[in-house]
Amino acid sequence: MVLLRPATPEDALRVAEVWRTAWHDGHRGHVPEALIEARDPAYFRTRAHELTDQVTVAADGEQLLGVLIVKDDELVQLMVTAAARGRGVGGLLLAEAERQVTEAGYDEIWLAVVPGNTTARRFYEGNGWVDRGEETYSAVALGGEPVPVPVLRYVKGLAPLRGS
Questions:
Q1: Helix (H, G, I), strand (E, B) or coil at 51
Q2: Cα 19 to Cα 79: distance, rounded to the nearest angstrom
Q3: CB atoms inside a 10 Å sphere around CB 139
Q4: CA distance 126 to 30
Q5: DSSP three-state, residue 163
Q6: Can you tell me the distance from the alpha carbon of 145 to that of 125, in angstroms, rounded to the nearest whole number?
Q7: Which one, of 66, 76, 49, lies nearest residue 3 by Cα?
Q8: What is the pLDDT of residues 37-83, one digit of tens each?
Q9: How far from the centroid of its chain's Cα atoms is residue 99's Cα?
């Protein structure tokens, strides 16, 4: 049974590994080479520790199946392990992102997706997200300047919480 829960500091290494693997799977060949080089294992370990309070994990017992990172009204990252794909884990994490952003008082959620990641784009579109067009995203790089990445901004309007 898949359960969603806030990440703990003890999860950070596993979060980093899921994030690294899924990120490279969806981004290699679709982002500048400088960003691929900046996304080494140390980057993911460091960022997983730094962002623990923004991370939700999908787990089946001790097995980590997916990772969600939300900050304010942005879905920063949504990753699912290859073994968990097709099991509904991505949909659970996406619904959780929308819930968190709604609960934080926003009426719209957004994310940046690289145009070449057609699998992700189909997933978001199939869940009611809309492509609002191209922009440049400043991707974090440890110890260096942010890397500008051409992306598409996807958005989804959110219904207010009942009683709000």
A1: coil
A2: 6
A3: 18
A4: 21
A5: coil
A6: 32
A7: 66
A8: 889 999 999 999 999 999 999 999 989 999 999 999 999 999 999 88
A9: 15
Q: β-strand 55-60 against 63-71: which pairing, if any? A: antiparallel
- CB half-sphere exposure, 39, CA atoms < 13 A: 21
- Band (141; pLDDT cuts 50, 70, 90): confident
Angle at 24 between CA 19 and CA 27, to 5 degrees: 115
Which is it for strands 3-6 and 130-139: parallel, antiparallel or unpaired? unpaired
Phi, psi values for residue 71, rounded to 5°: -135, 120
Neighbour tally for 71: CB within 10 Å: 14
Q: What is the spatial distance between Cα 28 and Cα 26, in angstroms, rounded to a whole number? A: 6
For tokens 């968190």, what's the residue?
Answer: 100
Q: Which of 152, 161, 162, 54 is nearest to 106 (CA)?
A: 161
Backbone angles phi, psi at 124, to 5 degrees: -65, -45
How many residues belong to the chain?
A: 164
